[in-house]
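To: structure desk
From: M.T.
Subject: fold request, one chain
Message: Could you run this one when you get a chance? Sequence is below, nothing fancy, just the single chain.
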Amino acid sequence: MERELRKEYFDKAFKLHSAGRVEEAQNFYRKILKENPEDYEVLNLLGVGELQKENFEFAEKYVKDAISIKKVRYFYETLSQIFFRQNKFEEELAVRLAEEQNFGLNFELAFSLGLLYKNLLNFEKSEKYYLKAIELNPTSRDTYFNLANLYTFFHKPQLAKLAYLKCLELEPDDRESKYFLALNYFRLKDYDNGLSYFESRLCRETAINTEAITYPNLIPNSKIWNGEDISDKILYTYYEAGFGDMLMFARYIPLLKQRCKKLIIKPQLELCQLFRENFPDVEVMDYFYEEKNLKFDVHIPFLSVPLALGLSTDDMFIFRDRYLKADSEKVKLYKENYFNNDRFKIGIKWQGNTYYETDRVINVDAFAPLFELDNVQVYSAQTFEGAEEFNKLATKYNIVDLSKSFKDFSYTAAAVENLDLIICNDTSLAHLAGAMHKPCCILLPYNYNWRWHMDLNYCDWYESVKLYLAGKDETWNSVMKRVISDINF
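Reply: Done. Structure tokens follow.
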């Protein structure tokens, strides 16, 4: 093909491609390729087009053909993207290592290799490349942030803390780094430094904005409580996160009540009756009131309460023996309907809200060894998402389903009171059991939540809870075997 005609076709193709008209562009690319099958630039652009159409097999072939003719750095970047879009990290790594061998290491490549090795759970090499990326570009906030995430994932919160502090040195208003810095302070059991950074969390802002929409005249015209004297004022506090967070921080409600003239609390609807039964001197809102029927002087999102109370690290873990109880009539009702036997009663749950995390979901077959134990009756407390898995157990084993009896958490608490042991994932049931001082084994994924700290031999929040951390490559079935070996009948 003559140079001028090739240029004409290429210019038309590139304009069409840039305008998002990929198919039309590819028609011109193919005309060029028909005359010159080794036009590596066109081969790569055909690969880019196929990538945009998610035709990954053709995209890979075109780009590999281009590389076989001429090794160009951005061809490797295209091929890397093809594998990245398919979560083929091993193949992507091979491409990036070939790029390093052919062209040497620059900042972008070092950063990419750091991320790839993290995805492949290779801590040492991931750290090595992130540190190299920082050496090549010491002002990259993103590299420090990714390095901090790496340290967090591999249980090195002290190093993560330093990396997040570096992020804030580079970008002082970096809200995301402040939030994750708080979580690493918490994991280190340093609430003195962590609580103030925790105020950058998004759920706090969402909760305040939701209240402002619900009460457009009250919220904008009243202050957020920051710990000042409110002994003559009415305080309104409201939920902002999950059930587990509300149950864990419910230990502070008596302290909160002491600080104000009147306390109004709005938990999730499912928690209202349980809170009302346990905190009779507090006004618990079942539903949002009409604005004209609600009066308060100051307000605060519930997870900000420890900071406003001025709690130190040592103060955070009050009432770890017991601060919630079940209604005696409901306990009796459950005893009669479900628990009137002399067996050792174990309640199980395998899944929480997967909107936040999927790592906490336990495969139901991991519970199978429990059914082989002598004189044991197993009860399912799994509700909502994940409840469909109950049928897999019910078709094989004698298991009692409690979930349909749970109208709210006051009923769940009554069932828990009748149990001898709870075995579950990191979920609201675990917090309820701990708050009620019921023996509970919590199965934690390798990348576990900040609240359980570093010393997993001891649960700071609940005296009755024992923690079981899954190893990096350990299955839930293996963790369950460790739990069963520890059960004391």
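Reply (cont.): The radius of gyration is 29 Å. Let me know if you need anything else for the meeting.
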